[in-house]
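Deliverable D4.2, example record:
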Amino acid sequence: MKARVQKLKYANTSGPLFVMLDVTAACNFRCLHCYNSSGEKAKNELTNDELVDIVKQISEMHPESLCLCGGETMLRSNICDLIKIAKPNVGAVNMVSNGSFMTLENVTALKEAGIDTIQISVDGINEMQHDTFRGYVGAFEKAINAIKIIHSLGIEVLVSFVPNKLNVRTISEFLEMMCELGVSSVRIMPLIPVGRGSKIDTLLLSSDEYADLQLTLDVKKDYFINKGMLIEWGDPLDHMYRLSNNEKIGYKNFQYHVKANGDIAVSAYLPLIVGNVRKHSLKDYWNNGYDTIWYSKEYKKYRDQIESIYDVNTVSEIIENDGGCIDIMHDMI
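Output generated by the structure prediction step:
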């Protein structure tokens, strides 16, 4: 009975359950693995006013969760305004950050705006592991201080961790450190070899190393749950396959991804675009094919060429050579 209730819930939804909004592509770090090569502002990046309008559109769709992503989200000057606009009509407003601008003053402002959770990226137990990976001297100290400040103000703090050759052998120590800092969840995701990540083969784990890591996490999971910290394994390929198979059980697409230049992407990890928010509203795109974009033949022909994370960059190049677009608004002026 429970499964059927869930099926009907998703089948009848009029909009996405989860929305990812890249508020900027600018970033003060130069992370070696960055899948979207953040650093400089995107060409034709959305203005503050345009972002306000987009967040209002998102609010009208009443998603369960809005993630404010980047780039570095704190470089968007009206980030608190966006949170305030979204908060009344969105189940949870979350953001990701490298932590470098998370001062007591700034985090207090985020809390007053209504932020629900803040995710900080931490990729090691010391400066060597983290700063090297993040391309910024002092990044580790800033990230740890950010976690302490966020936790002290009563905001739920999550941590993302990307396993690589520098840090995989100290995963147990890392988890203990995060737990002691009051982190509620550690989200671990494989390094995606796209963007700048396609250029660091020497840091990429092998399949056997990933398997050993998952065995370690399975052993540690219950221990840390009992201490109040969840360990999550995020498979970047999971959504590519799972969502496109949801058609069989009546689910619509449950996510939306808007990039910093207004492009609407099918996936954060593939350069496959269906349009731009400057041309049509989010609701128009949703009602004209984005709600079922994962079931389209155009998407599946690319997905079927991806068997592991090591194939993502090759398929991304194929998409770019093909033009990188699925036109779902061809019948609209």
